[in-house]
Amino acid sequence: MIFIVVKFTVRPEHSEGWLDLVADFTRATREEPGNLFFEWSKSVEVPNQYVLVEGFASEEAGVEHVNSEHFKQAMATMPQALASTPEIINVQAPVDGWGPMGELKPA
Question: Could you tell me which residue ranges the ABM domain spans (predicted)?
């Protein structure tokens, strides 16, 4: 699995509308056959920062994602809202997706 985490710090005036700006990109990516998950969260510590956690089934699926029209369109529209260059972690993980956490269970 390709596991990716990206931190997007956006300009304050675009913070409330960020998820609307990336809605088509998010929908199209989730529809890709090789996409395992594509999830946005908002930082609780850094104002105006969104964190994207994404997973792709294979390196090929990741390449197809980056070469897709919706990816290219997103790369063209996102810069207007960014406050800084996004930070990324991109690794190959020897798993197929999420698993249960062994150290913690509901009481």
Answer: 2-90
